[in-house]
# Entry
Amino acid sequence: MFLRNGVQKGSTQPGCAEARLHGIPTQPLVHDPRIKAAVIAAALLGRFFTTEGLKGVNLPVQLWASEFGGDGVTHDDAATVDRNLAARPELHTVANAGHFALLPPCSPGQARVFAQICADPESFDRAAFHVEFDWQVVAFLPRAPAFPTVRTQATMRAAAELPAARAGGQRP
# Structure
């Protein structure tokens, strides 16, 4: 199923094509001190995130995985990242969801053109999930130690709306 460089055979995804041409990078990554926390949804190729490779990751991580995976992403990818991080991340498994459910809801036009990406099981409400996902991310980031006081406008707006929305029962 996978080539020796970890790329799925037959995949037409641009990232896979790039990896087939150049392989998976093997040089160590350098820490960017501006990054104080990470939110990772659908960790592709989690099997490449080894304990050795993740040993320098010392920041809060919120990790999201779909129950069913898809398109080469499995729940095991997130489990491997979870297991190999030195500090346990805040792990969320999205029930009844496939890999693409972690993408924002599709417009009707997108649903016609990208049916595979936009289709979810009837038991999954992508729009409601993304409301909850947004709340969880907004709640997670300020809890991260040394999180900068500068926020994006979207984060500030969502944080300001959180108490009112919860009081009004708008949160799923």
Residues 45 and 77 are 6 Å apart (CA to CA). The radius of gyration is 18 Å. Helices lie at 14-22, 51-54, 75-84, 108-113, 115-118, 126-143, 153-167. The mean pLDDT is 77.
